Amino acid sequence: MRILLASYGSLKTRGGWFYGTAQKLQNGFVRLGHAVEFFSDRDIARAASPIRSRIMGRRACNRTFKDYVRNYDPHLIVLCHADLIANETLAEVKASFPAKRIVEVRVDALHNVLTIPHMRARAHVIDRSFVTTGGRALDLVGTPTAPACFIPNPVDSGMEAGEAHLSDDQPFDAIYSRRPVIEMPSDDYRAEIVTTLERDPSLKVFSIGIHGGSQIFGQAYFDHICNARIGLNLSVKAAAPIGGIGPADLMRFYSSDRIAHYGGNGLAIMNPAEFSFDELLRDGQEFVSFSSPAEALEQVRWLAHNPAERMRMASASHRAFHDRFSSERVAEFIVARSFGEPVPAACSWPAEEFAGQLS
To answer: Do residues 168 and 306 both lie within one domain?
Structure first.
């Protein structure tokens, strides 16, 4: 099968985004035997603008995308945060090539203020969406003609190649990483947890995006991850219901790709209980959940001071992520569901589809 995969590339970061979700899906599709053409919408738009503006180059990017569709003639078009591809362009593609399947992959939280409006606007020009949030909240974005499915954040064996679970000589006990593009409020629970851990003299904590500073890209980022024993997967929480869906359902299974970076590189993962990861992983065996900063501190202390148990749990997590949530598994699921085929037997996560009516 020929697949056209549109997403952001890593030209702007000079290779720094090599571990992006789209790059992992590309590897997964190829390992399954498919041909993949990668279309970097942002890089193409910037190249088309005299001042390297992706906004000014958007029209040229969409013209080029239509040329790609015509010349490559893909069976499946996968949009992974390819937000520069206009809905009008996709409508033209569907009208000209009605047999082609167009799907979208989103790693954003549904309670992100921009996610639901974008996906609702996109729904009439795609055939299915795949989101790293699960459960009935997907009724907010799924439609009868474009149902929404949950996918886990994929782990790629060629990228997440660290083995922190096999040693106990790391300089840091725990790490938390986030993009520091938006300043974190001082009352954010993530900052409260990290600063609580940092105040403990028995622990060494490395954080990115809590106290300002710049983002760390590329292999240097993975090196920092592998210099820690425990990964704090602290995702933004939903503050209020949306469309009748409460915060607990809005957060079900949600995580950024941070969780794949931690689990894939062999860290022991800690996750807030509200995100219901106990339905995907075995709590206490493949990860640890907690419900308060005090409980988080207690769990980190225990893991840091019991290396054999920490390494046992991290090994189980590493195995689960590479076996159950690999880029091949997620890619296989996307291909199957894009064409209405049965869920592959190897895909172990909840695979129900949601097709709630748009208001």
So the answer is: yes
Owning domain of residue 302: 164-324
Q: Shortest CA distance to 141 belongs to which of 129, 132, 153, 152?
A: 129
119 in the same domain as 62: yes
pLDDT of 358 over the 50 cut: no
- CA distances from residue 333 to 274, 341, 356 in whole angstroms, order as listed: 26, 9, 21
What tens digit of pLDDT does each residue of 311-325 get? 999 999 999 999 999
Give bridge partners of residue 177 from the DSSP assignment.
208
Residue 28 falls inside a structural domain:
yes
End-to-end alpha carbon distance in the chain? 36
Give the pLDDT confidence of 163-202 residue by residue, as tens digits: 999 999 999 999 999 887 677 777 899 999 999 999 999 9
Half-sphere exposure of 96 (CA within 13 A, CB side): 12
Indicate if 339 and 316 belong to the same structural domain. Answer: no
Question: What is the rounded CA–CA span in Å between residue 289 and residue 276?
Answer: 9
74 alpha carbon, distance to own chain's centre? 24
| Assigned domain for 159 exists | no
Q: What is the DSSP string of 5-73?
A: EEE--STTTTTTTTT-HHHHHHHHHHHTT-EEEEEEHHHHHHHTSTT--TTTTHHHHHHHHHHHHHHH-
